[in-house]
Design goal:
Helices cover 36% and strands 16% of the residues. The chain has 15 helices and 17 strands. The protein is elongated, with a radius of gyration of 23 Å. It is α/β, with parallel strands linked by helices. The strands form 4 sheets. Strands 5-6-4-1-7-8 form a 6-stranded parallel beta sheet, with helices on both faces. Strands 11-10-9-15-16-17 form a 6-stranded parallel beta sheet, with helices on both faces.
Length: 396
């Protein structure tokens, strides 16, 4: 069944609660990347342009103690939203209470209200993160309908998504969440084949569920990043001083046996004698010495990946191919970006996290069909898990 989206709602004159994901990176009180704020603009604009009263809220960071409140204050985010949307944003520095209730009650059509970090409620028994029923009920009382546009938190049942949804008459997905459902959900449920997955990152343990699910659904799974060495060692290869999860070798063997020829491992690596941004040496994975540390996939691996990707119709990528933050070990990740950017007629989906950051920082974001806004959520979605933040949205 298709999910209801914000454009299916009659929002005119209604107070529309909009859960967004404004969990943006900050440094010294300054937003360093406003991508997530920009991503929510179409949903907020739809509501206010159709006579709705937008009540916008988000979490920011983690709040475990009093000291976390100041550094995770959403005031600066509200100001940035105001600049981007080019309309006043009335910010209430509270998550409960009369000031918030009055501001919501007095909101006019086409106006925007934003309130303080939902995780401020975690200071008193993790009420937000643990989906306290009274908190969800309270936030629901501030509005008439609920729009969830926060995919980054969709894999967690919280008071600000599932809790509110349980206490309002109508719940819909925002345009951003709808796009995640369409692309990632589409890759899970009805991928256009050939369907190729590219998995990188440091740990096999982070990707176990995804690899197992993809063994059933994908046509090929290309492996890169530090986790490739756990697989290579499981095959009996000498990986030198490369990173390896020794306690996951048996699991790697099981995954290799289960995947068979679907799993494609690198044939060469860029190595160094130390973990530092120094020029590396390309070596076959069969020729690593005891003090060699593999920090990126090599050029022959990129050629292999290119041959597997030729003609692909659906490609999902999660995790960098090497230590891409170091310029000497970024070539593999850049190469994968280039391969995907040049694929004709394919749905290219980047599953959030470091691979999304890489595509954006390397200038390839606009060449991809979809870049997910949630790393953890996209991984769980690719596993085929039911995400609470999507399940709570009404079906058409």
């Amino acid at each position: 069944m298709a999910k209801k989206i914000v454009s299916d709602l009659n929002v005119k004159g209604k107070k529309v609660l909009i859960r967004v994901d404004f969990n943006v990176p900050m440094k010294d009180g300054v937003i360093t990347d406003d991508t997530r704020i920009r991503a929510a603009l179409p949903t907020i604009e739809y509501v206010i342009n159709h006579g709705g009263k937008a009540i916008v809220f988000s979490h920011l960071g983690r709040v475990k103690e009093e000291a976390d409140l100041a550094k995770n204050d959403l005031t600066v985010v509200a100001k940035r939203l105001e600049e981007l949307i080019k309309k006043p944003v009335h910010f209430v520095n509270a998550t409960k209470g009369k000031a918030l209730e009055d501001a919501a009650a007095n909101l006019g059509e086409g106006e925007i209200l934003m309130f303080q970090n939902t995780r401020y409620e975690d200071l008193d028994g993790k009420k937000e993160s643990k989906n306290d029923p009274e908190l969800g009920k309270y936030w629901a009382s501030l509005g008439d309908v609920f729009v969830n546009d926060a995919f980054g938190t969709a894999h967690r049942a919280a008071a600000s998504n599932v809790g509110i949804a349980a206490n309002v008459s109508e719940t819909a997905a925002g345009f951003l969440l709808e796009k995640e459902i369409r692309y990632i959900g589409g890759a899970v449920d009805e991928p256009v084949r050939p369907y190729i997955a590219i998995l990188g990152g440091a740990k096999v343990s982070d990707k176990i569920g995804v690899i197992e699910a993809l063994c059933e659904k994908a046509d090929k799974i290309l492996i890169g990043g530090a986790m490739m060495f756990t697989f290579l060692k499981a095959l009996g290869k000498n990986i030198g001083a490369s990173k390896c999860e020794e306690d996951k070798l048996d699991l790697a063997k099981e995954l290799l046996a289960k995947a068979g020829s679907k799993l494609v491992l690198p044939v060469d690596a860029v190595c160094a004698k130390e973990f530092a941004d120094v020029p590396g040496v390309v070596k076959s994975v069969d020729a690593l010495e005891a003090d060699d540390m593999g920090l990126d996939i090599g050029p022959k691996t990129l050629e292999l990946f290119a041959s597997v990707l030729a003609g692909a119709k659906t490609v999902v990528w999660n995790g960098p191919m090497g230590v891409f933050e170091m310029k000497n070990y970024a070539a593999g990740t850049i190469g994968v970006c280039e391969l995907l950017a040049n694929l004709k007629g394919a749905n290219t989906i980047i599953g959030g996290g470091d691979s999304a950051a890489a595509a954006e920082s390397l200038g390839y974001a606009d060449k991809m069909s979809h870049i997910s806004t949630g790393g953890g959520a996209s991984l769980e979605y690719l596993e085929g898990k039911v995400l609470p933040g999507i399940a709570c949205v009404d079906e058409l």
